Structure formats: structure tokens, C-alpha cells
Amino acid sequence: MTQYIFEFIGTLVLVLLGDGVCAACSLNKCKSQGAGWIVITLGWGFAVMTGVLIAGPVSGAHLNPAVTLGLAIFGSFPWADVVGYIVAQMLGGFIGAVLVWLFYKDHYKATADQPDTMLGTFCTAPAIRSPWRNFLSEVIATCLLVFVIIALAAKGNAFTVAGVPAGTGALGAFPVTCVIMSIGMSLGATTGYALNPARDLSPRCAHAVLPIEGKRDSDWGYSWVPVVGPMTGAALAAGLAFLVF
């Protein structure tokens, strides 16, 4: 149960800071409005790092159902804990999004005439709507993320010195932070790089139920892409890792 609690808290913080930077760069009358894509990708990278630093020592800080699935398929995480981790992550993502809305409530009110902008602070949307190509984008990006996470524990990246973990994998949050930033800058421009159902579906549900003035529908027709795409990419990453490591 302690592991589930830390997955919940870590994912909550990830979404609070990640959706928070989206809100800060998008909503009217924010001091950072218009700061742009680089700030958003950096903000999301640091959001992941913060969540990992909190949850890592206790739960391993998956903070992402796709990561949990990929590690379980690869054999480095017990299947018995998969459902509990995913439930904790999804609940954390929901509460994190609610906190972003509470924090920026006055700015949401000031942006009430821009429903697409408000939705974009909760969840992803494609730059060009082409569902199967958008799906492929999420598959490729998440496959890369999960493959690198598995690689961090591989021989040559992780080793021990006098029984103490060392090497790239032992740096924990920092390599994953760099990967998230790199994916965002290089592969995120087509779909907004969800990579994580708890980062997208949970906040999308929060958008659907919160009393946000002027909001639009929550774009449920697209919502399968940032869920099925990352989960598929994670499964492919695990399969590739079997062949390589």
C-alpha cells in the first residue's frame, strides 16, 4: 500500500507541475503566457524529475501506466502489482489536474472565450488530426521512452561499486528527465507527446467534471490515442528489450 501511495503522490506532482506549465504558458493574464514550446518541454521534464525524486525510493516511480506495463512485460516488475500501480497513477493524475484548475482558476475565467486553449492545459490534442498517424506518433515516442528506461538498468549503464549502485542508471531521475525533454523537443510537436495515460486521460476526466466556465467538450473521440498509443509503445519497447538485453 505504501508503494501505491507514493505512486499516487508522485503522479499527482508530475501532473500538477506538467499541466501547470501548460496553463502558465497558455492562459490569459499569466505572467508567462506565450513563453512557448521550449518552456513547456523543460517544465514537463522537471515535473517528471520532481515526481521521480519523491516516489523513486519507495515505489520505483513509474508514474505512468505505460511504464508499469512495459516493465511487467519485460519481467522486471511483478504482474500482481500492475493494477494497483495503474489505479494509483490515474487517481494521482486526476487530483493533480484538479489542483492546477484551482491554482489558475482566475486565469481560466479570463480565458473562458478560448475553450480549446483551456482544454489544452489538461490534455493533449494533435496539431494535425489524423488519428492513426497520431497513434503512431505516440507509439514511437513512448517506445523510445520505455526502451531507454529499461536500458538504464542494463549492463554497462548500471553497476555496483563496493555493493553500492553506480553508473548512469543510478542517477535515477536525471537521465529520464533528459529523455522526456528530448522527446518533447524532437517528437512532441505532432501530438503534444502524452506518453502517459495518467497524464492525459485522468486530466481529461477532470476537465469533463470540473465546473470550468466556457469549456468545450473533452474531445473523447481523440482520447483513445494518448492511451492506446503509449500502452502499445511500451509493449513494443519491452519486446525490443528482450531481443537486445
Low-pLDDT regions = 166-171
Portion in beta strands? under 5%
Tally the beta strands.
2
Q: Supply the CATH superfamily name.
A: Glycerol uptake facilitator protein
* First-to-last CA distance: 31 Å
CATH class category: Mainly Alpha
Number of structurally distinct domains: 1
The name of the CATH architecture is: Up-down Bundle
What is the makeup of the main sheet? 2 strands, antiparallel
Shape: globular
Give the helix/strand class. mainly alpha
CATH fold category name: Glycerol uptake facilitator protein
User: How big is the Rg?
Assistant: 17 Å
Tally of contiguous helical segments: 10
Portion in helices: 55-70%
**Order of H and E elements:** HHHHHHHEEHHH
So what's the oligomer here? single chain
Average pLDDT taken over every residue = 93
Strand order of the largest sheet: 1-2
Topology, element by element:
Layout: H1 2-26, H2 37-59, H3 65-74, H4 82-103, H5 105-110, H6 115-120, H7 131-151, E1 158-161, E2 164-167, H8 173-187, H9 197-209, H10 225-244
Antiparallel strand pairs: 1-2
Helix pairs in contact: 1-2, 1-4, 2-8, 3-4, 3-7, 3-10, 4-9, 7-8, 7-10
Structure description:
The protein is mainly alpha-helical. The protein has a single domain, classed as Glycerol uptake facilitator protein (Up-down Bundle), CATH 1.20.1080. The chain contains ten helices and two strands. It has helices at residues 2-26, 37-59, 65-74, 82-103, 105-110, 115-120, 131-151, 173-187, 197-209, 225-244, and strands spanning 158-161, 164-167. It has a two-stranded antiparallel sheet with strand order 1-2. α1 packs parallel to α4 (82-103). 49% of the residues are buried.
